[in-house]
Amino acid sequence: MRELDSNNHSVFGLYYHLVFVVKYRRKVINDDISCRLKEIFEYIQPNYNMSLIEWNHDKDHIHVLFKAHPNTEISKFINAYKSASSRLIKKEFPLIRKQLWKEYFWSRSFCLVTTGGVPIEVIKRYIENQGGEKV
Fold first, then answer.
1. Rounded distance between C-alpha atoms, residue 40 and residue 43, angstroms
2. 46: which residues sit within 8 A by CB, 6+ positions away?
3. Which of 14, 26, 46, 89 pairs with 103 at a CA distance of 20 to 30 A?
4. The total number of structural domains that make up the chain
């Protein structure tokens, strides 16, 4: 059984698997960039009542497992995160601009799925095993 969270009025267990893809699947994410993207996620998440559980990346996308509260505005978080991370990555890793198309870092689309009844450890293992070849 999953561990449940609570607040003043409810008990909940809201876990999500989120995948962000680099625009046109450009292969620009290495360990340093992934680490910085994760730091940005961790900096923004408290404002949205979210907690990072697991993180991993491949050359052209990231996988994130997080838990949220019922009042979490996930779409607002996604917009804030994509905007801030895109701006900061391009500023802090200027060479990356040469590999991007028209300054875009992230694709407009993303994948967000609830984890349903799948044990969190199964999803964590899946994300841990993502990445294949690193840049």
1. 5
2. none
3. 46
4. 1
Class of residue 41 by CB neighbours under 10 A (exposed 0-12, middle 13-18, buried 19+): buried
- Token look-up 């899946």 returns 126
Q: Report CA 135 to chain centroid distance, whole Å.
A: 19
Residue 133 lies in a domain: no
Residue 25: strand pairing partners: none
Q: Check which CATH number belongs to the domain holding 43 and give it.
A: 3.30.70.1290
Per-residue pLDDT of the chain (135 residues; tens, 9 = 90+): 567 888 888 999 999 999 999 999 999 999 999 999 999 999 999 999 999 999 999 999 999 999 999 999 999 999 999 999 999 999 999 989 888 877 789 999 999 999 877 888 888 888 888 876 544
Look at residue 5 and tell me if it is in a domain.
no
The residue with tokens 């840049």 is 135
Q: Write out the residue range of the structural domain in which residue 69 sits.
A: 11-128
